[in-house]
Amino acid sequence: MCFCISVISLMVVIMGILAEEETAICELLGSPELPLLSKSGDIFIGGAFSVHSQMAASSLSLSDAPDPLICTRVNFREFRFAQTMIFAIEEINNSSSLLPNISIGYKIFDSCGSTLPSTRAAMGLINGQERTFGNTCSGHSTVHAIISHFSTCACLSNRKEHPSFFRTIPSDYYQSRALAQLVKYFGWTWVGAVRSDNDYGNNGMATFIEAATKEGVCVEYSEAIARTASKEQVERVVRVISRGSAKVLVAFLAQNEIDILLEEALSQNLTGLQWVGSESWITAHHLATMKYSGILYGSIGFAIKKAKIVGLQDFLLQVHPSQDPQNHILKEFWEETFGCSFQSSLQETKQCSGSERLRDIKNPFTDVSELRISNNVYKAVYAVAHAMHSMLKCGENNEAVNASCTLKRKPICCFTCINCAVGEISNSTKCSPCPLEYWSNEDHNKCVPKVLEFLSYEETMGTLLTAFSLFGAGLTLVVSFVFFWFRHTPLVKASNSELSFLLLFSLTLCFLCSLTFIGRPTDWSCMLRHVAFGITFALCISCILTKTITVVIAFKARTPVNTVPQCLASYQRMGVVGGTFLQVLVCVVWLALAPPFPHKNTMYAAERIILECNLGSSIGFWVVLGYIGLLAVLCLILAFLARKLPDNFNEAKFITFSMLIFSAVWVTFIPAYVSSPGKFTVAVEIFAILASSFGLLFCIFAPKCYILLLKPERNTKSHMMGRDLQKKH
C-alpha cells in the first residue's frame, strides 16, 4: 500500500507536467483498469488492496518462483480490509448525523502486492475509466479521496512530494527510533539487521541504524531482501545471518519478505536468534505456528494498536456471491474459502452450492479477534467522511454568515472567528495580505485592484478648476481685445502697450498651464506641467518687473516724459527675455538631470493608489519656484519705492497690490502644498496658479479697463500727466 500511495503521488506530478503540453493528445494504451468492487454515490472513496497474492506462503518455492505479474489466489486478510472499508461506508450511508442526504460510493482496486498491478491501480484511481484525455494527458477521476491504511514509510512525510497525503498510521520514523530504544533497553548492543529492499525497509532501517548508533548499539551487518529476489540471493542473506556473531536480529521486513526469509531459514536450520520485528509481521497469525516456533520463539516488536469494531463480524459473515452475481472476486473468494467451484465442468473440484456458511469457517477473513490494520481502514473512511462533512457544512455556514474571517486557534468551521484586517483575505486558516497594488473586497475573500486616484476632468473639483482656468484665459483675451481696440488712446500708450500685450499673453498662458495638472499623469504631462508653470510665470513676472522699472525711470527722469530715450524699448525687451531665459535654463537643466515622472504612491493611503507626478528633483522644483519668488520680491520693492508718483496715474500702486496678493498666495501655498494628501496636492497647486493669475489680472488691468470703458473722459493726455508734470512743462 505504501508503494501504491507513492505511485499515486508520482503520477499526479507526472501528469501535471504532461498537462503543460497543450498540443498533446493522450490515449490510454490497452484496456482501462476496472475496480474489483464498486458502488455509485455522490462522493467516491478509493482504495487499493492486495486482494490477490502471487502464491500462498506455505507453497512458495524459491527455485520456481511464479511470474511476479500474475496474481493467483485471494488474500483473505487483504480481502477483509476491503470489506471493512465497505462496512464503514455502509455505516456512514445509514447515519442520519454524518453526511445526511449524501451517499458515499467506492472504487476498490487490486494492487496484488506487485509493482505493475499497483501502478495500474494507481492510474485507475487517478484517471477513471476514460480511454482518451483530450489534449491534457490528465484524466478526470470521480474519486475524491484514497484510503491509505498501511502506509508507514517515512518518505511519505515529505510535504513537497506528497502534499495531499495524510496518515492513518504513524510513520516508520518513530517505530525505527523506538526499536533502537527497545534494543538498548534490553542491553543488546551487538545486533544484525535485515530489511525489505524497498522504501519501507530501506528508510526504516536507515533511521534505526542512525538511532541505534546514538544509543550505543552497534550493527554487525545490514542485509536486504527483495520480494522478487532469487533463491541464491536469499540463501546468501541467511548465510550471512547464521555466520554472524550477533545473536539479536532486527528484521524490518514486509510480510512477503519475512515469508521468503523464514522458508530459507527453515531449510538452513537457522535457530538461536532473538528476533526483533517491525509492525508488518510481528503480529501475523500465520507465523504463530509450530512450523516457525523454533525460529521465532520469543520474538518482540511494536504492534499496531488493536481495536474492536462493533458489527464488523456480522457484516463479514454476510458476504456472499449473490450480493453481486456479476462480480468475479466474490465468486473467487467463495471458491477458495470452501474449496469448491461454480463451474460444473471441473470434475476434480466439488461444485459450490451457495448454501455454504462462513460461520463454519475459521480463516484470516472471518477472524476479528485482533483488528489492527482493519481498524486503520475503518478510521480512515470515517476521517474522510468527517472531512467531507465539515467541508459541506463550511460551505453552508459561509453562505449564511457571508463573512471566508480567519479562525484563531479553533478548529476549521467552528465559526468562532474574527474579521481579517483591511487589505487581507482569509483562506479559512489564516489572513493573508493582498499584493501591493491590490486590496481586499468587502467579504475579505478576494484581492481586487486598488482604486487609482488622480485629479480628473470628470470629477466635480476637476471640472470646476477647468472652468475657472478657461474663464480666466477667456477674460484675459477680452482684456487684450479691449486694449487692442483702444491702443491709440493716451491710457494704453502710457501703460506701455508693448509690455501690456506681452503681459496679457503670459497671463493667458498662466491660466491655461493649470490644465496640464488635471488628468492622468503621464511622462509628458508631468514634465510639461512644471516647466510650463515655471516659464509662463517667469515671463509674467519679468514683464511686470520691467514695467515697474520703466514706470520708475519715466517718472524719476530729469527730462520731460516725451524726451525719455527711445532706446528704453530695447532695454525692456532685453529685461523680459533675460528674466525669462534664466528660468528656461533652470528648467532645461532640471529636465536633463532628473525630470518629473508619473509615480504610483502606495504609501500615503493603503486602500488606494495615488497617481501623481514625482518631481524627480525636489531641488529643481524649489529653484523654479524660488526664482519666481525672487522676481516677485524685486517687483514688490520697486513698486513700493514708486508709491508717491502722481495720483492721476499711479500704476506702481496697482503693481504693489498685485504683488502683495501674488506673494500672499504663494507663501500660503507652501504649507498647504506640503500637507495636502493625494489629488488635493495638485488641486492646491492649481488654485495657487489661478488665484495669483486672477490677482495680477484684476489689480493691474481692472482699473484701466474701468477708465477705458466707463470713464473715457479721463483717457486724455493731460489727465495722464497730472498737475505736477504739467508744472514741469
UniProtKB/TrEMBL annotation:
Alphabetical keyword list: Cell membrane, G-protein coupled receptor, Glycoprotein, Membrane, Receptor, Signal, Transducer, Transmembrane, Transmembrane helix
Read off the InterPro entries from this record: ANF_lig-bd_rcpt, GPCR_3, GPCR_3_C, GPCR_3_Ca_sens_rcpt-rel, GPCR_3_CS, Peripla_BP_I
The molecular function GO annotations come to: G protein-coupled receptor activity
Mind telling me which Pfam families this protein's record contains?
7tm_3 (PF00003), ANF_receptor (PF01094)
Question: Which residues, if any, are the signal sequence?
Answer: 1-19
As for subcellular location, the record says: Cell membrane
Question: Which parts of the sequence belong to the G-protein coupled receptors family 3 profile domain?
Answer: 461-724
Record's protein name: Extracellular calcium-sensing receptor-like
